[in-house]
Amino acid sequence: MAELFDAKINILKFSGQEKYTKILHVLFFYDIIKLFIKRFMASKPNVSEKQAKLIFAENYGREVTAIMSLDSYDDRNYLVSATDGKYVLKIFNSDVSADSARCDEQCHLQEFWFQSGIAVPKIIRNKNGELQFKLMLPVASGESMDCVVRVLEFFSGMILY
Q: Who's near 18: CB < 8 A, 6+ residues apart?
């Protein structure tokens, strides 16, 4: 890609169009950002608040009164207010979801900590009694892929940076 960029710059210089090199630099930078996002964030679930609300309601049998997207690097997280409390709906990216053993280990470790009296959010079982499950969902690359879905009780507090 860098060779192509250098070739375009040389053509502009040779043709006396040097004033366009700044524009080309900006476009090249934009292309690099697009490639980065496509390569490293392609597996992030592409789920709207409306879709998240439906996923929660259908799989957990609770009436949603409000939903809000939370910050997340490569997963999707939502604060869900339901008639019986607040929850965090976590939808893992498809890369992490592909490693079922890792997801299961995380889930069972958190469940173990909770049952041992350690202050961690309780994992809420879905209507089928599962601690987590996979759904085929759209991701940032435009494809649909399996993503692990988990719901946790909401712990209020302050984000530590």
A: 12
For the chain, the average pLDDT equals 83
Per-residue pLDDT tens over the stretch 73-90: 889 999 999 999 999 999
Give the H/E segment covering residue 79: strand 76-82
Q: Average of pLDDT values for 31-38? A: 57
Q: How far is CA 144 from CA 42, 44, 46, 93, 94, in A?
A: 11, 11, 9, 11, 9
Spell out the CATH class of 49-153. Answer: alpha beta
